[in-house]
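DM from R.C. (forwarded with permission)

"hey, sorry to bug you on a friday — could you get me a structure for this? deadline for the figure draft is monday and I only need the backbone to look sensible"
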Amino acid sequence: EMLVMDWLDKNKYVYIYQAQVNGGYRLGGHVPDFAINKLDGTIEAVLVNGDYWHRFPQKNLPDKLALAGTYFQGKRITGVVIVWESHLMQGKAQRDAVMQDAVQGIERQH
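My reply, with the result:
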C-alpha cells in the first residue's frame, strides 16, 4: 500500500487512504485501500492485494461487486481495480505501468 501511496503522491493524484464506504469497518461497510478522485467527478477504488492472503479469486469478487456503483462522499464509485503485490514489486517501470493502468480502471490479471 505504501508503494501505491508514494506513486499517487508523486503523480499528484487526490485520494483518500482507507476510505470508509457505507459504514467502513461496520457490518455491511467496505474499506477500499484508495479512493481516487477522477477528473469527471467520480471515484476509482483501488484494492491492493497481497499474493498470499488474496490468492483465491472467490475472495476478491464480492469486494469488487459490493463497491462498484456505490457512493463515497457524494461521488459515485465507477470502477474497482485490484492491484497485486507481485506486480508492484517487479521494479519501478512495472509499478509505473501497473499504476497508470489502475488509475484508468484497467486491472492486470494475477
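R.C.: lifesaver. The mean pLDDT is 90.
me: no worries. Helices lie at 2-10, 57-67, 85-88, 92-103.
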